[in-house]
């Protein structure tokens, strides 16, 4: 019989269990006075096609989310396999997160990481309290993608690239 562990730090056990599920690596960013502001997220998923919605989860302790929340538009970049350095830099708590990272901004203020594999131009649709995070639903206003560029994957607290295998399309 499978034994469930909850003793000690249940948050740690949950982090380890959820870490077994690979997730994408994304950057959420916008400009403020022409200067980019943003951060790395690995809690990103598609929610709805009609209306077009995606979601991200942001810790309540984030210092960057309060800067991004009021922006008219937010750029969500799905990072590519070669973006490990950018992901680490965008994850940092201090310093200029965008120093040395190629980025582009739209007239509306969305910021995109130039080397990413997909770009979603979004606006905040709704926010829901979710424990120590806020679940943010983003309405997708436009998007662009290059499916031939492999994505960066976050698994077991490490950045990884997908291995090239021949698989069937579903």
Automatic annotation (TrEMBL):
Key words of the record: Oxidoreductase
Pfam families, per the entry: Flavin_Reduct (PF01613)
Q: Which InterPro entries match?
A: Flavin_Rdtase-like_dom (IPR002563), NADH-dep_flavin_reductase (IPR050268), Split_barrel_FMN-bd (IPR012349)
- Occurrences of domain Flavin reductase like (ranges): 18-161
State the family named in the UniProt similarity comment for this chain: Belongs to the non-flavoprotein flavin reductase family.
The protein here is known as Flavin reductase family protein
Please report the organism this UniProt entry assigns to the protein. Amycolatopsis ultiminotia
